[in-house]
Amino acid sequence: SQTIHQWPATLVQPVGSPLSLECTVEGTSNPNLYWYRQAAGRGLQLLFYSIGIDQISSEVPQNLSASRPQDRQFILSSKKLLLSDSGFYLCAWSVGTLSGEQYFGPGTRLTVT
Amino acid sequence: QKEVEQNSGPLSVPEGAIASLNCTYSDRGSQSFFWYRQYSGKSPELIMSIYSNGDKEDGRFTAQLNKASQYVSLLIRDSQPSDSATYLCASPGTSYGKLTFGQGTILTVHP
Question: Which phi and psi (to 5°) does residue B31 adopt?
Fold first, then answer.
């Protein structure tokens, strides 16, 4: 069966510090991968999606970036965090088309202070 | 602009009642719809998928799709306190890519 891991589970970082969040998927090959952010009390905002290694699309211009160095690994990064980057970061995967069912990881709760 | 909208709630029902959650969408070409459940502080969990008009039942959950009215709903029968969560409706529309999520409806089932 497929499983998805994210780490760390929680993170407190000062403004201006770098960020690296990692997501890995097990039990499937060539998944589509997604990064979402959910701000407190708000909906899910798609940040990036990827259909393959080094194939990443950005949905919103911001100070975040994503990379996919391996088939089942997706990394979200920032060089300098902003207060507005606080939120619940969710990685998700799907197979087949990008329009199919997506399955979410446990998430990383980021607080920028 | 393609949108997915949910009745804002919050919705409160007594234990054992039927909870009805509703979602409308603007993209007439949408072919698939998903319902996710999100407990407080947790990530969304896929609970139902529906692709064709009509009803789809899974245990206490029934998803209903009406493409003519651009309306999808989720019924929870015999609601339990453990059903208390935020329910998210999502659809990819017709664009290649990404699910569009509604804002969610908070459901509280009180004993």
Answer: -115, -15
What would the pLDDT profile of A65-106 be if each residue is shown by its tens digit?
999 999 999 999 999 999 999 999 999 999 877 678 899 999
When CB atoms are compared, the residue of A44, A49, A101 closest to B49 is A101
Taking the C-alpha atoms of residue A85 and residue B3, their distance in angstroms, rounded to an integer, is 24
Q: Who among A99, A104, A109 is closest to B44 (CB)? A: A104
Give the pLDDT score at B99: 84
Q: Give every CB contact of residue A61 below 8 A, 6+ residues apart in sequence.
A: none
List chain A residues with CB under 8 Å of B37: none
Query: Rounded to whole angstroms, how far apart are CA atoms A47 and A50?
Result: 11
As to burial, measured by CB atoms within 10 angstroms (0-12 exposed, 13-18 middle, 19+ buried), residue B61 is: middle
